[in-house]
Q: What sequence folds into this?
């Protein structure tokens, strides 16, 4: 009986060992043995779909894109915990404040929109309203937004509301009357709240609404933080982070840089910052973009 | 007559207690099952089947299974001896080590990933050395295994320790007094008696590894495991496209747990 048990265990161990070798052999996952060039990229969460389903198929090399929130990406690189070939973030300002990069290419802008669920009462009210903010003020729409203390989308929503007050010459101060604590969700959860119908409307980025086919209200360029031409107007509003850092309103500009140069990396980078896929995925590419600041290598700017 | 009555009574009280346990446990079971059922039922079978042939999903499933198997094996190889030592050694050191083993269970996985990065990340001495020798510790299967082992191995240690402690030590003493050395006693007496508990620990570690996300996404990300793939699907295309992948993961997890249990419990015993 003991003998039988031992045989059982032995064959189990042999089985596991055999299966392991088999798996390792047929997939080659145990090491980078095939010699393919791999370009690694650390990128902002909002770029994920454009990279996975746009950029990836437009480049020849194997692209390993890793996606986190922009601020986390910058901190991971700054502290040496991640070492990507290309770094691409949702805010060019992060390159200056957290990183010591030689140059940055601003390659796209994004806009704020108010997405709504046309199947909910609140969503329909918002769509039918003469001014989109009216149903938000009278409290008949369940609005979702993200935490201004945690991510840029959160404080940009507040900027937009304040700019809207002036732009529409509204009776109420929208930045004070619209937001309530219950509207706040983490950035990734906002999507699921919206998709499962828990909120009627959400202040979000245009690329997100476009990618996922949401109905949305476009906002005028004066308040949607998309147009570098209105940079001065955007700069009239600000937000103070819990640690006391003040943040000024600014256009939503995506920036990227190369950290390890190689022909393969450069090819991926060029497609990344000049590709037509950006517009397809809901971003805006202004006329004079990509715009290089700092000491960019000539081979890239030309 | 009297005998029969007391038998009925004891049967009734046994039945009652069983019903109570079933009632209480059933509530918990529903709590587990309802969300899973709603996940499975919300997906048209076609969408799930379509995922099964997607090369990204196949690669992610292969990585998940390989990594979780390696992680559970490492956890068993190193965790079981540690558990035995903890169960048999006495003193303050043992209490301290037990607390230390529980730490990865307390840490949020994402913090575990960050902590691991400070030790094996590309900027560290260890990370650089390993990468220079062709064995990168991040963005590699090794990275996935490191993350999973860190998070899941405590389950083996904690469970196996309890299993060893429940073995009657007088049986071990008997074996020793009959001239068997410590290793033989362990193999012939302690291990067979505590095996169900150890197997439960390994199963838990394997299950935890299959579902591991937080530490893996910080440390490795590539090659993608199923949880990372689900997250990528969610952040690119939304819930609609993440759920079919989640159903596939669920199927794989259930199948492997069943296999593990069948293999681990010897039907001849």
A:
């Amino acid at each position: 009986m003991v003998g039988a048990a031992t045989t059982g265990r032995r064959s189990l161990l042999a089985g596991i060992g055999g299966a392991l070798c088999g798996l390792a052999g047929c997939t080659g996952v145990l090491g980078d043995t095939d010699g393919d060039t791999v370009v690694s990229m650390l990128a902002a969460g909002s770029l994920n779909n454009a990279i996975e389903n746009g950029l990836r198929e437009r480049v020849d090399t194997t692209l390993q894109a890793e996606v986190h929130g922009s601020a986390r990406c910058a901190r991971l690189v700054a502290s040496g915990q991640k070492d990507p070939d290309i770094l691409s973030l949702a805010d060019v300002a992060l390159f200056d404040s957290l990183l010591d990069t030689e140059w940055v290419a601003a390659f796209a802008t994004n806009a704020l929109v108010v997405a709504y669920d046309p199947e909910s009462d609140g969503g329909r009210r918002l769509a039918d309203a003469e001014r989109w903010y009216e149903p938000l003020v009278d409290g008949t729409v369940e609005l979702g937004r993200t935490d201004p203390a945690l991510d840029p989308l959160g404080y940009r929503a507040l900027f937009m509301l304040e700019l809207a007050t002036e732009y529409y010459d509204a009776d109420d101060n929208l930045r004070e009357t619209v937001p309530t604590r219950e509207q706040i969700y983490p950035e990734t959860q906002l999507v699921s709240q919206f998709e499962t119908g828990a909120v009627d409307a959400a202040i979000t980025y245009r690329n997100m609404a476009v990618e996922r086919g949401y109905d949305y209200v476009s906002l005028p360029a004066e308040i949607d933080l998309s147009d570098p031409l209105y940079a001065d107007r955007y700069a009239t509003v600000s937000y103070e982070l819990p640690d006391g850092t003040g943040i000024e309103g600014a256009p939503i500009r995506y920036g990227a840089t190369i950290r390890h140069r190689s022909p393969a990396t450069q090819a991926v980078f060029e497609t990344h910052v000049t590709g037509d896929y950006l517009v397809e995925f809901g971003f805006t590419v202004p006329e004079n973009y990509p715009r290089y600041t700092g000491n960019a290598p000539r081979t890239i700017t030309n | 007559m009297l005998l029969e009555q007391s038998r009925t009574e004891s049967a009734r009280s046994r039945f009652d207690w069983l019903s109570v346990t079933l009632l209480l446990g059933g509530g918990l079971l529903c709590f587990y099952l309802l969300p899973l059922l709603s996940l499975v039922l919300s997906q048209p079978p076609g969408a799930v089947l379509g995922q099964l042939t997607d090369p990204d999903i196949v690669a992610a499933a292969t990585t998940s299974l390989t990594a979780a198997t390696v992680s559970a094996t490492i956890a068993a190889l190193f965790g079981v001896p540690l558990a035995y030592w903890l169960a048999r050694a006495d003193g303050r050191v043992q209490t301290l080590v037990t607390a230390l083993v529980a730490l990865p269970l307390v840490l949020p996985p994402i913090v575990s990933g960050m902590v691991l990065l400070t030790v094996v990340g590309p900027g560290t001495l260890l990370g650089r050395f390993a990468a220079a020798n062709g064995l990168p510790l991040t963005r590699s299967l090794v990275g996935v295994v490191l993350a999973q082992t860190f998070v899941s191995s405590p389950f083996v240690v904690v469970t196996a320790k309890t299993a060893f402690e429940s073995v009657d030590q007088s049986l071990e003493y008997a074996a020793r007094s009959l001239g068997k050395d410590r290793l033989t006693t362990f193999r012939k007496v302690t291990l067979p008696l505590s095996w169900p508990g150890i197997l439960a620990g390994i199963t838990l570690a394997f299950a935890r590894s299959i579902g591991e996300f937080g530490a893996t996404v910080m440390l490795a990300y590539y090659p993608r495991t199923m949880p990372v793939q689900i997250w990528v699907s969610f952040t690119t295309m939304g819930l609609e496209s993440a759920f079919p992948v989640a159903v596939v993961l669920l199927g794989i997890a259930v199948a492997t747990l069943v296999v593990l249990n069948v293999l681990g419990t010897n039907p001849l015993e």
User: Anything to note?
Assistant: The domain at 47-264 of chain B is CATH 1.10.3720.10 (MetI-like fold). Chain B has a mean pLDDT of 89. The CA atoms of residues 139 and 221 of chain B lie 6 Å apart. Chain B touches chain A at residues 59, 62-63, 65-66, 69-70, 73, 114, 117-118, 121-124, 134-136, 138-142, 188, 192, 221-223, 232, 234-240, 263-264, 266, 268-269 (CB under 8 Å).
